[in-house]
Amino acid sequence: MAGLYLHIPFCTQRCVYCDFYFVTTQRTTAPFVRAMEAEIEAYGREFGTQEPVETLYLGGGTPSLLPLEEVAHLIAAVEQHFDTSALAEVTLEMNPENATPDYLRGLKALGVTRLSLGIQSFFADDLAFMNRAHDAAQAEAAVEAVGAVFDDFSVDLIFGLPEQPFEYWGANLEKAVRLGAPHLSTYSLTIEDRTPLAKQVALGRVSPVTDETMRERFLFTMEFLTARGFDHYEVCSFSKPGHRSRHNQGYWRHRNYLGFGPSAHAFWKTTRSLAHRWSNVRHLGRYQALLEQHELPLDEREQIPPDALADEHILLSLRLMEEGLDLARLRDEYGVDLRLEKRAALADLERGGLVTVTDDRVRLTREGAVVADAVALKLIG
Ligand code: SF4
Fold it and tell me: Is the entire prediction scored with pTM above 0.90?
């Protein structure tokens, strides 16, 4: 079963760390929604009957800037052009300033089942540093408002902000748990190229925290949340039973997905060894213009060679802390015998306490989760 991702590229202002594609100048979203409906219809003709859709995810950008009737149009387009008989989860990313009771109830009535709430911090100085559009009071009120309408929701928090006291991070986790969040996504602050934050770092105005500080915060996070009944099911994701993100698990399990909207990506595997990846243009005006001319808004499209496909599978499935990387599946589906091909690297990682190898599966330890990408890089190529 497949996942569908709709990228809604509108924000009220630019957060300093963000490198997603978005615009802050759009007055009306209606032409964009019409373009996206056309894109959904076009892909529906090719993929609509190939696999039922299991999950739909509206991300961004800030999807919660869309009026309810436009969210309704997009969901209706998906239902019209794809097989949604098995649709199990519809997630919408929301920023705290949009979490009004009417809007939340409206989303629920439209069939949205899960919200992903971009809190990032409950502290005013953290929010000011990140240039978030909400304040600390709105952050807390939003979690309460969302929890009053939705059983299933996630709170995003960021750790490792320069000069953020350790107590702030503990208090952020504590507050999210106390407010009843059944799922948390915790991200370390990353300094991405071409962001305002990268510029500030280059100018010497901001000093990134050390790797050791990041490690301590992350180890604390794992300890804190698992002690409070959360399953650490993916490197950055913690869930109470029954609240895992189905959509994101689809990515990590290397399932097919289609992406709509400017800058969105898609991955589609047709047979064991034949898979394609493609991406859309990263420009709202061009995206809309191409669809108005009945053309797909494609930027790049590539066939993924079998060895690259196997590497991708290793990178993604290692992120699943409990499931780990299934070595038998890797052998059968991708033709890679890691025990033979990476015997020395696996032994090194195991000796270093970064992975365990049991039941024909490789799993990250907590120390391994801190450096998950570096661990995966030792096992690919
Ligand atoms: S609201 Fe989200 S997408 Fe928009 S700038 Fe901030 S982090 Fe980026």
Answer: yes
Burial of 318 per CB tally in 10 Å (0-12, 13-18, 19+): buried
Atom of ligand 1 nearest to the CA of 11: 4
User: Which band of pLDDT confidence, cut at 50, 70 and 90, is reported for residue 381?
Assistant: confident
| pLDDT (tens digit per residue) in 292-351 | 999 999 999 999 999 999 999 999 999 999 999 999 999 999 999 999 999 999 999 999
Residue 284 neighbours by CB distance under 10 Å = 21
Delineate the domains of the chain, giving CATH numbers in brackets. Answer: 2-250 (3.80.30.20), 323-379 (no CATH)
- Tell me, using a 6 A CB cutoff, whether residue 73 lines ligand 1: no
Q: Is the CB of 14 under 6 A from ligand 1?
A: yes
Secondary structure letter of residue 208 according to DSSP: P
Place of tokens 């992975």: 355
Is residue 221 scored above 90 in pLDDT? yes
To test the ligand 1 pocket, which listed residue (5, 11, 134, 284) has its Cβ within 8 A of the most ligand atoms? 11
CA dist 301 and 160 (Å) reads 35
In this prediction, residues 38-65 reach a mean pLDDT of 96
State in Å: Cα 11 to ligand 1 middle: 6
Q: Is 216 exposed, middle or buried (0-12, 13-18, 19+ CB in 10 A)?
A: middle
Single out the residue of 273, 269, 170 nearest to residue 224, CA to CA: 170
